[in-house]
């Protein structure tokens, strides 16, 4: 017997061949699989589906690479170096492990990297903390009006457009990198720049609060595919329903004037000497001790 005789039927079985579900679910959108079984599993499935239904079983095949151990060897049960995900989920959390997996590009091998999982855990924690910070301000009455606020939303519009295009092309790693890079800039620069204004009661306060909540809503939805639990938790703090059932964000028509990038450059110049003084003070303290 051909060992692929049953697995080649998987699209028909999953979609409920011979039932009402089949008419609604077949053909499927995507088949993910590794590259070493293209000739066997993929070919057998396409051939069987064509013979049974006269149609391809899916529209796109996503070919993954292997997961490699620190010695650059393929990880797996047969190799004796496979790992159960349970321990990793307990140590780092599901979002962190998913973040590491999302950093592996289609068609390329991915190194097993606990350091990358720690980065994912920090990112999920930062999303929780940033959401708590933003939602600590009262909701604003009107739209953003200040130049820095609208420029930030314009930069975020560009992120939405880039991430959407990347995901539509199955370049999920590029989408994650784009969203993550903006998010850290947003936290490190924008939140620091507007927090005093958002705490105040001058006219610019409402603009800052409105921009903060608008950006948070967009960022939570952008992160939902990559940090599903942190995104769902923070979304539930102020929105009804699930973030995974919410509409995907779209550009809102704001213009990025470059104000946020310029302000970030000034902040970097200010922080540089301050950090240098901090290091020098630390060395003097070490010598004194």
From TrEMBL:
GO terms for molecular function: ligase activity. Gene3D superfamilies: HUPs (3.40.50.620), Isoleucyl-tRNA Synthetase, Domain 1 (1.10.730.10). InterPro entries: aa-tRNA-synth_Ia, Anticodon_Ia_Val, M/V/L/I-tRNA-synth_anticd-bd, Rossmann-like_a/b/a_fold, tRNAsynth_Ia_anticodon-bd, Valyl-tRNA_ligase. It comes from Actinokineospora soli. Its EC number is 6.1.1.9. PANTHER family: VALINE--TRNA LIGASE, CHLOROPLASTIC_MITOCHONDRIAL 2, VALYL-TRNA SYNTHETASES. Residues 1-111 form the Aminoacyl-tRNA synthetase class Ia domain. CDD domains: Anticodon_Ia_Val (cd07962). It is an enzyme of class 6 (ligase). This is valine--tRNA ligase. It comes from the Bacteria.
């Amino acid at each position: 017997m051909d060992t692929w005789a049953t697995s080649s039927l998987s699209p028909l079985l999953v979609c409920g061949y011979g039932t009402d579900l089949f008419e609604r679910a077949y053909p499927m959108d995507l088949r993910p699989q590794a590259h070493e079984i293209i000739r066997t599993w993929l070919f057998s499935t396409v051939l069987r589906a064509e013979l049974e239904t006269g149609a391809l079983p899916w529209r796109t095949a996503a070919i993954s690479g292997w997961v490699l151990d620190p010695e650059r060897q393929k990880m797996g049960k047969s190799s004796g170096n496979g790992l159960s995900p349970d321990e990793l989920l307990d140590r780092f959390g599901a979002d962190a492990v998913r973040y590491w997996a999302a950093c592996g590009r289609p068609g390329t091998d991915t190194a097993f990297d606990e350091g990358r999982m720690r980065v994912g855990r920090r990112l999920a924690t930062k999303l929780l903390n940033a959401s708590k910070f933003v939602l600590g301000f009262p909701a604003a009455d009107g739209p953003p009006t200040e130049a820095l606020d609208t420029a930030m939303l314009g930069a975020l519009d560009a992120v939405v457009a880039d991430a959407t295009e990347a995901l539509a092309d199955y370049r999920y790693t590029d989408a994650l990198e784009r969203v993550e890079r903006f998010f850290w800039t947003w936290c490190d620069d924008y939140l620091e720049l507007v927090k005093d204004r958002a705490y105040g009661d001058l006219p610019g306060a409402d603009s800052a609060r409105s921009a903060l909540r608008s950006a948070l809503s967009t960022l939570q939805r952008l992160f939902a595919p990559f940090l599903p639990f942190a995104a769902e938790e923070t979304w539930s703090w102020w929105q009804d329903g699930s973030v995974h059932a919410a509409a995907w964000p779209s550009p809102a028509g704001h213009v990025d004037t470059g104000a946020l990038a310029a302000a970030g450059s000034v902040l970097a110049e200010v922080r540089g000497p301050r950090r240098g003084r901090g290091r020098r003070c630390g060395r003097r303290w070490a010598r004194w001790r």
